[in-house]
Amino acid sequence: MIDSMPRKIAVILAMAATAFAQQRPAARNFDAEIRAAQQAAKTAAGDEFLGSLVRTCFLPQSGGENTTDTLPNYVTNPASAPARATWFAEPAKVFDNLYFVGGKIHSSWALTTSEGIILIDTIFPYNSEELIEGGLRKLGLDPKDIKYVLISHAHSDHIGGAEMLQTRYGAKVVMGAADWDTVATYPNRYKTMAPKRNIVATDGMQIKLGGSTVTIWLTPGHTPGTLSYTFTVLDRGKPLNVAYSGGTAFNFVNNTPDPGIRNFQTYIDSQRHMAEKAAGATVILSNHSEFDNAYNKNRMLAGRSDGPHPYEVGADMVQRYFKVLESCARAAQIALEQKQAGR
Length: 343
Ligand SMILES: [Zn+2]
Fold this sequence. Notes:
Elements: H1 4-23, H2 30-45, H3 50-58, H4 73-76, H5 84-87, E1 92-95, E2 98-100, E3 109-113, E4 116-120, H6 128-138, E5 146-150, H7 156-159, H8 162-169, E6 172-176, H9 177-185, E7 199-201, E8 206-209, E9 212-218, E10 227-235, E11 238-245, H10 257-277, E12 283-286, H11 289-292, H12 294-302, H13 315-340
Parallel strand pairs: 4-5, 5-6, 6-7, 11-12
Antiparallel strand pairs: 1-2, 2-3, 3-4, 8-9, 9-10, 10-11
Helix pairs in contact: 2-3, 2-13, 3-13, 10-13
The structure holds zinc ion.
């Protein structure tokens, strides 16, 4: 009995210490967490996705979303559009039923079917006529056959030709609800680029034409209405599954914890959603050559002969593409958590 009192005190002290430890978890090492997320992105990127890695992990991010309603210079004064030599690229037949009609930097894709063309993304107003209409004609296709225009998101480098193609050919334009609203909200910004609202995309919606199906996946993040797709192409008769990533850089409000942390979570969730829907896809496509190397791959394709298709990177690499974006977004999100913690 003689030592019961000190033992009681020791027990009470131990309990107090435990309670204290539970209230004050070990401090997070934010810098180490950021480095680990960036390393995960580097490992996933390998030498295949360096453009996506650099853009989302290491280049400075834009300050946030554009909320101005300003007429673009190239609309008011077409002579101010970038010089043709900076954007012109030859069109290319990439698969039996998929054609590239984009430029050096931005892409547009034509999926051909027995009942017409599904066009994915439309570049700028100043070059969509030459690249898309001109490109299709050079490849022996007819722009009049465009039945659907899918806009991955309402930025002027992808929606630029949508109004023109809708007006000239009666093509039905498909876009995410929030991005339709953005176009309606900023009439000056979208002058000459504002198609009438035809089809509001929903998650899992199927656009069917002539035996082909493009399935739409909602991947908000880059813009609130960003769309991604899965569809099948044929390579010399062999079916290949394609994952199309519709928005990449972090040009949402990303520099303050509120709403940045939440915005990055939306983006991360979208990458996971798309990675799941892309299971089995062996081809990854995007709307910027920076992310899928389309411009260079088209040149490689011209010398393919009996070699492998340069776009067929395999199912593992397609999954790794989404891992790069997810990990870089996580690194940026941790940096905002650090800011929020005041450290
Ligand atoms: Zn964009």
